[in-house]
Amino acid sequence: MYDLVVIGAGPAGMAAAEVVADHGGTVAVVDAGDQPGGQFHRHRPGEVHGRRLEALYAVAARVDMRYGHRVWTVERAGDRFAVRCVVGQREPASAVVSGRAVLLATGAHDRVVPFPGADLPGVMTAGGAQALLKGGGVVPSGRIVVAGTGVFLLPVAAGLAAAGGRVRGVYEANRPGRRLSSMAGEWGRIAEAGGYASRLVRHRVGFHRGQAVVAAHGRDRLTAVTVARLTANWRVVPGSRRRIECDVLAVGYGFTPQLELAEALGCRLEPGASGDPVVAVSATQRTSVPGVYAAGEVTGVGGASSAELEGRLAGHAVMGVRPPGRLLTGRAQARRFAYRLETAFPVRDGWRSWLTDDTVVCRCESVTWSGVRGAASAGAVDARTVKLLSRAGMGYCQGRVCGYAVNRLVGGDPMSVPVRRPIAQPLPLGLLAEEGEP
Amino acid sequence: MAEERYGIDLLVVGAGVVGAAVAHYAARAGLRVTVVEQAGVASGSTGAGEGNLLVSDKTPGPELDLALLSMRLWTELAQTVPGFEYEAKGGLVVTGDDTGLAALRRLAGAQRAAGVTVTEVADPTDCEPHIRTGLAGGVLYPQDAQLMPALAAARLLDHPFIRLHTGVTVTGPITSRRGRVVGVTTTEGHYSCGNVAICAGAASGRLAAAFGTRLPITPRRGVVLVTAPVPPMIRHKVYTADYVGDVAGDTAALASSPVVEGTPSGPVLIGATRESVGWDRAIPVTALRTLASGAVALFPALAAVPVIRAYAGFRPFSPDHLPVIGPDPELVGLWHATGHEGAGVGLAAATGSLLAQAVTGRTPSLDLTPFRPHRFQEAT
Amino acid sequence: MNEPIRFLCDGEPVDAEPGQTIAAALTAADVWTLRRTRGTGRPRGVFCGMGVCFDCLVTLNGRPDVRSCVERVVAGDEVVTTGVRDV
Ligand SMILES: Cc1cc2nc3c(=O)[nH]c(=O)nc-3n(C[C@H](O)[C@H](O)[C@H](O)COP(=O)(O)OP(=O)(O)OC[C@H]3O[C@@H](n4cnc5c(N)ncnc54)[C@H](O)[C@@H]3O)c2cc1C
C-alpha cells in the first residue's frame, strides 16, 4: 500500500509525487499514457529535451510509474483507497493500486461548442491538434484554421506554424485587447504568450479578434469553414459571413475538468471561474473527503506552473509537512490570475444561434439540435432528462463532449453539467466480472 | 399562471411513467389534467427503469392479473401513441440444474392456469444462439415485452388535455372544511383542482405524509450496467430462474440475478440489483461485479464487450410487494398510484387505466381491493 | 531518425514513425475518416486526440472500438477503419 496514489502524470501529479518521495513516502503514479508530463509536456517518445522534461523523468525514476493504466473507479475501503484500473487496450487486463491517500490530478479536456459540420473529419479540438503535433510530430498537410477562445489557441497556432503547418489564421471569438496585455507583467506565462504572438507574426498568421468559425463544410472531410464577426454576445453580425477554404480546423473553447472520480468519491464540487463545476479544495489541496486531494486543472486552475505549485502543496499535505510559505503565496497568486484569465475568455451563449436543426450536438449518438430541442419540449429540463429522451450523452463518451453544450442549450444551471460516471473508463464485462475485493 | 390553473379536474403529482399513464387515461376520459413535476419528465425511478414488461416473473395473484391487463394496454398504446421503442420480444427464463427446472416448471404451470402463455424450451440455445451451453432447460414467455420508459412517459403526456408543469414541487394539500382536497400548495404557489393523484414514485411515502396519510413506500436501489453498442446478439429478455426469488425477497442485502437484453440502439442492458439502502447513489463495486458475472455466466461472448455506463435508481418499494392504487382512506378527492417497485413500467398502463376509471366514477375493470391504500392502516 | 515501421490500414501498407499513435500515423498518411457512425453512416476522424471523445475508434487486429489516438502503432498491426458495426 502506497502513502499516495497519484492519478494523472501531468505537472500537478508529478510534483506531488516528487514531494512525497523527497519526504520518504511511497508513491505510485497512475496514468493512461506512457510518459510523464501530461498534456502540457507531451512529447515524442525518446525525445526528452529541456530541463523541465528531464526533471520529470528524474522524478519518474524515483517513484512507481503505472503507465497504460486507465482508472475506471476509485473505491474507499476503510482507511484506504483502491484505485481500479484497466491496463492496455490490446489485451486489456485489470489492476488495483491501493493507497492511504489519493491525489486527483486528472486534468481537463477541451470544452466543445457545437456548430454545423463540426463532426466532419478534419475538424479537431485545439488540444487534439496539439497532441498530434507534440506527441506524434504530425503537422496535418493542407491549410489549417485555428479558432475558438482562450490563450491556448496561441501556442497551438504558433506550434503548427513553426513546424511547417500552413496556418491561415487564428479566430478568437472574444476581444481580449488591452485587458490581456495589462496582465502580462504579472505572470511568466503571458511572456510566453507574447512569444507565441511574435511567432505568429513572423509566420504571417493573422489574429482576428471577435470572430469565430460558425460552420464547417465538406462531404467526407473538411474543405472549408464559414467565419463570421460576432456581436458581444456571440451572435453573427449580419452580412459578415465569409468562406475560407481549409483542410483542418483546430477549435477550442477553453477546458472542462475531468470530475467523475471526484464525484464518485463524494468530493464537494463548487463553481469555478466560468461557473462550471470544479473540485473544491483547501489551501493545501485537500478535498472535502479525508484522504482525497486534488490539484491542477480539476480544481479549475489552468496552466502547468500553477498545477505544479498545487501538486507540491498536495505532496506536503499528504506527508503532514508544513509547506514553504512561497508555495502558498504562489498558489494564491496563481488562482487570482487563473480567475482573471478564465473570465477574460468566457463562452457567450450566442453560439446557440449558429446551430441549425441538423447540427450534431451529441457526436456519439448523432443527436442533432432538433433532437435536443424535441426532448426539451417533451419535458426534459436538464442534461440528464435530455439524455433519457434523446440519447444525447448516452454514448461512448458519456456526455464528456456534449454535456456542456446540451446543458446550456436547455438552459441548465452550469453546476448541473453531467459529471456522474460511475464507470469512468470502458472496461470489458469479463474483467469487471472478476474484480477482486479491495 | 393563475388562468392556466383554472379548471383542473385532476392534478397528477409526478411525471414518471405511472403519473403519465394516469394522466393519459384521465385525459382520454375527458378530464382536464395538469401534471406537476419537481424536476423533468422521467427524472425519478422511470429514468432508471430498464423497460421490461414482464409476466414471467409474477406468481398467480392480483399482481399477475394487473400485469396481464397492462400487457394488453401497452400493445394498444404502442399503436395509438407510438414512438417508445415497444418490442414484443418475449422473455426466456433458464436454469442450470434439475431442481431449478422442476421449480420453473411448477411456476410455469401455475402461470399457464392464470392465463399466461408459456412454452417449455428443452435447449435454450435454440432460441438464444449465444447463450451458454449445458443449461438444464428453460421456459419461453412470448408475452414479455420491452419499451423505453422515459420515451413512454413523454409520449403518454403528449395529449391535448394534459398540461405539464416541470420544476414545480408539491408540498401539501389544500382542503375544504368538509375534508375534501380542493388543491395543492407548491413551491410555485397554489393550484386549485378537483382531484389529486399522488404518483410520486419512491418519494410517495414522504409526500403522502404531508397529506396526512401513512403510506410505507420506501426507496429500493437498483443498479444497471450498460455496454457499448454491439450487433444484435441477444433476442429475448433472458434471466435465470433465481431472479423470481429475488423479486419476492425482502432482504435489505444485495440480491441480484440480472435480466440481460439487447436494445434497439445497440447497447446490452444488464440489471438490476435490489438493495434497501435509502437514497444512497454511490454504487459499490460489488454490485457492478455481481451484475457482470451474472451476465457473462449467461452469455460468455459478452466477456469481451466493454461496459460504458452504470447507474443507480430507486424503486418505489411496498412492503407487501403490491402496488398502491386507489382512493385515499381519509381525504376525499385524493388518489394514490405508486409502490410498483421493480415493475412500475410494466404495470403503469393498467394502473393508469384503472385509476382513471375510479376517478371518473366508473367501476374499474379489475378489482382494486388488493391494491387499496388503507390496507397498511388495517394491518396495524 | 528511427527506421519507419509498417502496418496495414484497410489492407494498405502505411509507414509510421516508431512511437506514433495509430491516429497520428494515419493523419500523417492523409487518412482522415476513421469510422462511420451507426445509423447515418457519417464519417468521423480524430477529434479530441486524447482518448476522451471516442470518435477515432478503429478495429485493431480484430478488436473493435480501440481509441486510435492513444494507441501506439506496432509493426504489422492491422487497422480497419471501415469497421462500422452496423447495429
Ligand atoms: C434500476 C431499475 C430498473 C428497473 N427496471 C424496471 C423494468 O425493467 N420494468 C419495470 O416495469 N420497472 C422497472 N423498474 C421500476 C420502475 O422504474 C418503477 O416502478 C417506475 O418507474 C415507477 O414509476 P413512478 O411513476 O411511480 O415513479 P417515478 O418515475 O419515480 O416518478 C415519480 C415522479 O414524481 C416526482 N415527484 C416526487 N415528489 C414530488 C413532489 N413533491 N412534487 C412534484 N413532483 C414530485 C419525481 O420527480 C418523479 O419524476 C426499475 C427500477 C429501477 C430503479
List the helices and strands and how they pair.
The complex is a heterotrimer of chains A (438), B (380) and C (87).
Chain A lengths: L3 E4 L3 H12 L4 E4 L20 H12 L1 E3 L2 E9 L2 E8 L5 E7 L2 E3 L3 E3 L12 E3 H11 L6 E7 L3 H10 L3 E7 L4 H8 L3 H15 L4 E3 L1 E7 L6 E6 L12 E4 L2 E6 L1 E3 L2 H6 L3 E3 L5 E3 L12 E3 L9 H16 L5 H20 L15 E3 L4 E2 H9 L5 H8 L12 H7 L17 E2 H5 L5
Parallel strand pairs in A: 1-2, 1-7, 2-3, 7-20, 9-16, 10-11, 10-16, 11-12
Antiparallel strand pairs in A: 4-5, 5-6, 8-17, 13-14, 14-15, 18-19, 21-22
Helix pairs in contact in A: 1-2, 1-8, 3-4, 4-6, 8-9, 10-11
Chain B lengths: L9 E4 L3 H12 L4 E5 L7 H4 L3 E2 L8 H19 L10 E5 L2 H16 L5 E3 L15 E5 L3 E2 L2 H9 L4 E5 L3 E6 L5 E6 L2 E4 L2 E4 L5 H7 L7 E10 L9 E4 L1 H7 L10 E4 L5 E4 L13 H14 L7 E12 L6 E4 L6 E5 L5 H16 L15 H5 L1
Parallel strand pairs in B: 1-2, 1-12, 2-8, 4-14, 12-19
Antiparallel strand pairs in B: 3-7, 4-6, 5-6, 9-10, 10-11, 13-16, 13-17, 15-16, 18-19
Helix pairs in contact in B: 1-5, 1-9, 3-9
Chain C lengths: L4 E5 L2 E5 L5 H7 L6 E2 L6 E2 L12 E4 L2 E5 L10 E3 L7
Parallel strand pairs in C: 1-7
Antiparallel strand pairs in C: 1-2, 3-4, 5-6, 5-7
